[in-house]
Automatic annotation (TrEMBL), chains A, B:
Highest taxon listed in the record's lineage: Bacteria
Pfam families: 4HBT
Protein name listed in UniProt: Thioesterase domain-containing protein
Record domain Thioesterase: where: 59-137
Length: 162, 162
């Protein structure tokens, strides 16, 4: 991750409190993964170091975590893209929050358990309430999974439950 | 779930110890979800009740858990299908264990947090080392997600790391 990315704000840190409880990326979920997603130039990046129990078989990360990271990296990337498309900074009003409509994961190689996992996203479409993100997940610089997320703006009815 | 399904053995209970640590479905992972997958006639079924912290926004289940359940239900279903294709009971030698090559999830409706979630699988292909499973995930009888898993026999090199 470049210094630029490390210095830019994580979109999850500006989610309104009532939509900041996601197990994967909510800053208010103390049990969760607390994924953070930032711009790095025209790509988005999130880094997560799995816990020892996140095993598939000993030595490898289970697929559900890989899918979870790509899912939340996708919705975080979609929010960043939504703000950029509106030429606004993340955190300005009104807030943008996305949910996943479709997730596809190709498990390219076994994911070693130990090193930080870096998700990178490329925004391939921003159209109305829909954002499409193509992603890679890498360990030690080697791509272990490829993902694609179709994200849509969170329905008002969902957010108002929060 | 029918009484038949409840009475049939879960495939995860006969995985060899060295491949029974998966966070999603390993009986030896004390922190994990411990998903159990059984036959119910020609369908496979797994049931899991999310923990309170598995939120997306309050009141709903986060997508990563939905993906995790469909992923592990897929590999468990693949193992059951592999044994059946060889006209063997789960747990007979040699053991069959699968990993996911591709996972697709369509999030059909928001998943309520509270009721048990039931994953059901239909085996659509068993060919060599590959099994394809089409899945639904339901809450209170309503389908909230559809999934498709392409599973392949676990490479010997992975299992021997265990």
């Amino acid at each position: 991750m470049s210094e630029h990315a490390a210095g830019s704000p994580a979109v999850q840190d500006v989610y309104p409190d009532d939509v900041a409880h996601c197990y994967g990326c909510g800053r208010l979920n103390e049990h969760g993964l607390q994924l953070k997603t930032r711009w790095d130039g025209d790509e988005t990046v999130s880094v997560y170091t799995p816990r020892p129990e996140h095993t598939a078989i000993p030595g490898y990360v289970y697929g559900g975590l890989v899918a979870s990271l790509l899912d939340c990296h996708g919705t975080g990337s979609a929010a960043l893209a939504g703000y950029r498309a509106e030429e606004r900074e993340p955190g300005t009003e009104p807030p943008l929050r996305y949910v996943t409509a479709n997730l596809t994961v190709d498990f390219v190689a076994p994911t070693p358990l130990g090193p930080p996992l870096e998700a990178r996203g490329t925004i391939v479409e921003v159209k109305g309430k829909k954002v499409v993100v193509e992603e890679t997940l890498s360990a030690d610089g080697v791509v272990v999974a490829r993902g694609r997320v179709v994200a849509v703006r969170m329905p008002e009815a969902m957010a108002s439950q929060g």
